[in-house]
Amino acid sequence: MALSLRPQSVGRYRDVARLLVKYGRSDLVRQAELDDLAVTEDAVEPAVPPKAEELAADLEKLGPTYIKMGQLLSTRADLIPPAYAKALSRLQDAVEPFGFDEVERIVSAQLGFRIAKGFASFESTPLASASLGQVHRARMRDGREVVVKVQRPGIRECIAADMEGLAELAEFADNHFEAGRRYGFSELLRQFRRSLGGELDYRREAANLVTLGRILRPYDRLLVPEPIADYTTSSVLTMQYVEGRKVTDLGPLAKLELDGTVLAEQLFQAYLDQILVEGFFHADPHPGNVLLTPDGMLALIDVGMVARVPKMMRQLLVKLLLALSDGNGKGVADAAMDMGRPLEWFDAEGFCAGAAELVEQSQGLCLDQIDAGGVVMELMRISGDNGLRLPPELSMLGKALLNLDQVAHTLDPGFNPIEAIEAHTNEVMQGQMQTSPGSVFSALLEARDFVEHLPGRVNKVMDTVADGNFALKVDAFDEAS
After folding, report:
1. Is residue 477 pLDDT above 60, yes or no?
2. What was the pLDDT predicted at 361?
3. In this predicted model, what pLDDT tens digit does every residue of 123-163 receive, in sequence order?
4. Contact of 200 with 132, CB cutoff 8 Å
C-alpha cells in the first residue's frame, strides 16, 4: 500500500510526513511507508500533543501553499478541532518583501512601460508583504492616489509544484485511509486549487472589485477600491488607495464617535445580499480587511478570495437561516440534509439530534454571546461527525459570518446577528417574490417541507408581500398522502 514516490515531489512528501508525526498521526506515515522521509532528530511523536498555535507556526515555515492551505482549513470545523481552527484563522500571511529591482522588472514587463514613466511617484518600501505578493503606494500621472499589488516572482511555479505533490497524497489517502474516505481530501484540494487560482490571477481580483462595488452601491456607508483597468494584468493590480484604520484598532474614544449601529447593520445586510441574492460574496472579511475611513465609511479590501453560491443552494440557505433565526432545529437539520451529500455511514438520527441541540443552545445565549458564524461552523462539525458532507461554500459562509460577527460587535456591542439575519432574509424573500413571483412561488410551493416546517415564517413573509396588486397567504399544507 506504499505511496509511489515521484522524485520531484519527495520534498513535499517529507514536509507532510514530518507534520503528521509531530501531530500524532505516525500511523498514517507508517501505512504509507514514508517512515524514512519523516526521520529527523525531532521527528518523534511527542508525549504531550503540541499546542494548536504550533501548527500555525509550522505551516508558516513551509511556505505560501501551506499558509493558504491552513487558512482554508480554518474554515473546516468538520475536519479539525475548534482550537486548531481558531489558531489557523490567525495565520500570518506576512513574509519578507522581495527587492524593489524585482518590482520594477515585473511592473515594466507586465504594463509595458517603466515605473518612472507610468507613475508620478512609486514608493519603494511596500505597505504590506504577503506570501503571494506585496503592495506599494503610488500616484498616477493624473494625480490619483493608488496602491499597486505586485505578484511575488516564481510563486506560480512554486505553488504548482506543491499542488502536484499534495494531489498525489490526497488521492492516496482517499483510497487507503478511513479519514480520506470520510472527508474526501481530493475534493478539498480541488476547492483549494480553485480558490488559490483566483488569488493568483489579479485580473479576477479586479473583476471581483467591480462586482462587489456594484452590489454595495445601495449602501451609502460601504465601499470597495476601484481597480485601474489599464494598469492591471494577471500579475499586477492597480487600484484606488483607500485611507483607513482597521476596525479592531479603534480606541474607546473613536468608537464613541462612530455611528456603529448603522455601519454594523449595513455591513451585515450587504453580506446577506451577496450570499442570498447575488450568490457571490467576499469570503475573507476578517477585521484586517475592513477599514474605517476618515469620513466614517467602511471599506472592504483584499477581495482575491470570493465564493460563489449556486441558485439552488441559495434557496436552501434561505431555509436554513430562517430556521436558525426561528430556533427551529428540525428545519435547520432538514435544510442541511437537502444541501449536503450523505456518506454510506450517515447517521441521520444523530445528526438531527446534534443540530437540534445546537439550535436550542444558541437560543439560550445572551446578546453578547450570539455568534451566527459559530453556529454554522458547529453545524459543519456535527455533519462531519455524523457522515453528512456539506458543500464547502457553507464552511466559507460560516467563516465569513464569524468574522462579520466580530466586526459588527466591535462597531456596535449590542448588535444581534440572528435578528439581522431574520429581518433581512425576510426582505430577500419578499423582494424575490415581487420581482419574479412565478418562479419563486413555484419553488416554495413545491418545497412542501419548507411550508410544513416554517408555516409561521411563510405566512409572515407572504402577508407582507402584499402591495395592493399582489397577495398570497399560505395557511398550511395538510393534504392526505
Report:
1. no
2. 79
3. 999 998 888 899 999 999 999 999 999 999 999 998 988 88
4. yes
What confidence score (pLDDT) does residue 298 get?
A: 92
* The one-letter amino acid at 338: D
CA separation for the pair 154, 317 (Å, rounded):
40
- Residue pointed to by grid coordinates 437560543: 363
Task: Determine the longest span between alpha carbons in the chain, in angstroms.
Answer: 78
- Residue 2, Cα to own-chain centre: how many angstroms? 35
Binned at pLDDT 50, 70 and 90, residue 297 comes out as very high
- CB-count exposure of residue 154 (10 Å: 0-12, 13-18, 19+): exposed
Find the length of the chain: 481
Domain residue ranges in the chain = 96-129+132-241, 249-481
pTM, two decimals, is 0.79
Lowest mean pLDDT, pick from 65-79, 85-99, 134-148, 433-447: 433-447
Amino acid, single-letter form, for residue 414: G
Give the position of cell 519527495: 10
Cβ contact 395:246 at 8 Å: no
All three cell numbers of 7, joined, read 522524485
Distance spanning both ends of the chain, measured CA to CA: 52
- Distance in angstroms (rounded) separating the CA atoms of residues 63 and 112: 30
The rounded mean pLDDT for the chain is 79
Catalytic residues: 284
What is the SS3 assignment for 439-466? HHHHHHHHCHHHHHHCHHHHHHHHHHHC
Question: What are residue 207's phi and psi, to 5 degrees?
Answer: -65, -40
β-strand 341-342 against 388-389: which pairing, if any? antiparallel
Q: Do the Cβ atoms of 215 and 278 come closer than 8 Å?
A: yes
